[in-house]
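Lest this sound abstract, we think one record worth quoting, the chain in one-letter code, the fold tokenised, each line plainly labelled:

>
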Amino acid sequence: MRRLEEATVARPPPPTVDDSTSVVAYKRMVPHRPPPLPVIDRPHLRSAEEAVTNIIYNTPTPGLQPFKKHVLNCLVHNEPGVLSRVSGILAGRGFNIDSLVVCRTEIRDLSKMCIVLRGQDGIVEQARRQLEDLVPIWAVLDYTDTHCIERELLLAKVSILGHEYLEEQLLGGPTHAPRSAHPTSYPSHHLHPKPKPKPSKLEREAALAQQFEHSADTDHDHDLEGVRTAVPLTPSEALRMKSDNLQAIEVLSARFGGRIVDVSEHSVIVEMSGKTKRVEAFLSLLKPFGLIESARTGLMVMPRTPINNADEDDAEDGVGAVDASLLPPG
């Protein structure tokens, strides 16, 4: 009876992967011989100074291959310490990681890392094989020359008051309300005009005389346009300026496939995803409005699925030149 009760007790499902030793068993079960390393071009002729430096300090001569962008996709076991080991190997080889994205997959014990770095083909291939030899790493794929879908997410907080109020908004705290460090600064009086004391009779007469003196002098008025103090904005004018900037930001975001996800009194938050170059172009167009803060994720890639078409050559012969103006942006 006790055995029957123990058999009917619900138990959690067994884990798909017990620990990282399963990675070693997988590598032994599926042996694969990697292709030879790419040839690293090195200069054949060396000067005496370079030869002596190489003998004394044992420094290899630099390669002639160009530095280019590489995208590595690592399938790792989901356990603590994997990220530090991967970054330690890349740092030991002198790589600067441009972006790094780590996320869980649909499998419970499997995570995925997408690493973007710059380097020579031979050196990056050596680092890739060294990463693949680590125990908690299942495989490391190089997507540099693969047709992939690349996406990057951007969150940007933009001012709707204008670029001239950006410095004061940065002093305003979490609300980003304009706050001037100098009470006599120009932009603060625009949004928060203070009542001025009533001028005396002598000051009124002097201002009237000065106005009468320069009323016919148009050239002098033209010279004083750059030094005159502007009239403070009324609440209606400030509201109209916010509405115009908000509409311009919304139209610009729609052009890039983005959208406004938060609206506050003095700023908005814009969300946009796309390729890295497209994200950088969108940021450069947002800077004239006043970019308060921005946050970007790393690059995420997924290889395209090839389509087998028997009549591919015939279709290419029948298709003419495509007008670039008819294509969508990007």
About this structure: Confidence is low (pLDDT under 50) at residues 183-189, 218-230. The first helix runs from residue 2 to 8.
